[in-house]
Design a protein that fits this description.
This protein has 265 residues and is of the alpha+beta class. The chain has 8 helices and 6 strands, in the order βαβββββααααααα. The N and C termini lie far apart (86 Å).
Length: 265
């Protein structure tokens, strides 16, 4: 017994409706055609797209209802599903599910060398298989699906772990270079960014750096006070202006003394 998706152009023009006429039918419409000996049946089903399923043990059979999202009505609707599609989806696994997951985020390269394509295909295969084992472990631990990683986030964590493993991350100082093609995006709200568990527990670059007892003072407050105190308000009269200038000169002397003390440090 077998059931699989099929390409209709591999058959010798079966008596099925054309795709143009099929799309005019309501969603969930299905049609079947059998071979002369009735050993193989091909079912054509209209869902989001037209699907062809071939089987040697089941046909349209008993239909059931499934929930599908309707873009036109913006809500979930009931769609009829043939029995062969239901049994195919229930038993689908192995190669079919693996190819489906690999097609989502396949690594594309420009090179046409079969060796490079085989290497990247093997890496995608390993990541998808690891993700399947991750899903199996979560099912055994009864972890809700909304708390599990998606395939995209799983691939990103694997890539981050391989790139940053046993490496010390040092931020660059100074102004960013003008040749940088990607602009720096500053988030509106500060978000705590934590590395993945493989990087956080590798024991590299997680110790505090000591400055050998040489403390430094921040000049930010000094610059702010200097800008505020040395500016002259335009709304003061002459008498108040003279008193303000005297206070400003005294404040300027204090700032000079503070600056000299900071330079001595």
């Amino acid at each position: 017994m077998a059931a699989c998706t099929a390409r209709i152009n591999r058959f010798s023009k079966p008596s099925l409706l054309s795709d143009k006429d099929m799309n005019k039918k309501p969603r969930g419409f299905s049609q079947e055609v059998s071979s002369f000996d009735e050993d193989v049946t091909v079912v054509k089903w209209l869902d989001n797209k037209i699907t062809h399923v071939a089987s040697n043990f089941v046909d349209i059979g008993e239909k059931d209802l499934v929930k599908r999202w309707c873009k036109k009505d913006k809500k979930c609707i009931d769609v009829e599903r043939p029995e062969v599609v239901r049994k195919y989806n229930h038993a689908m696994g192995g190669v079919d599910l693996l190819d489906q997951c690999m097609s989502y985020y396949r690594t594309f390269i420009k090179s046409k060398k079969w060796t490079l394509r085989m290497i990247f295909h093997a890496s995608d295969l390993a990541v998808v298989q690891a993700y399947r084992e991750y899903q199996t472990d979560n099912a055994l631990l009864n972890i809700a699906k909304n708390k599990q990683l998606t395939l995209l986030h799983f691939r990103r964590q694997v890539a981050e772990s391989l790139v940053l493993r046993n490496k010390i991350i040092i931020g660059k100082r100074g102004r960013p270079s003008g040749s940088s093609p990607i602009p720096q995006i500053i988030p509106r709200r500060p978000v705590e960014v934590r590395p993945v568990a493989d990087i956080a527990r590798d024991g590299v670059g997680h110790f505090p750096a000591h400055d050998e007892g040489l403390g430094t003072r921040c000049l930010t407050q000094y610059l702010l006070y200097r800008r505020a105190l040395l500016s002259t308000p335009p709304y003061l009269d002459k008498q108040k202006q003279s008193g303000y200038n005297a206070g400003r000169n005294l404040t300027a002397k204090c700032i000079v003394n503070i600056k000299e003390s900071l330079e001595e440090l």
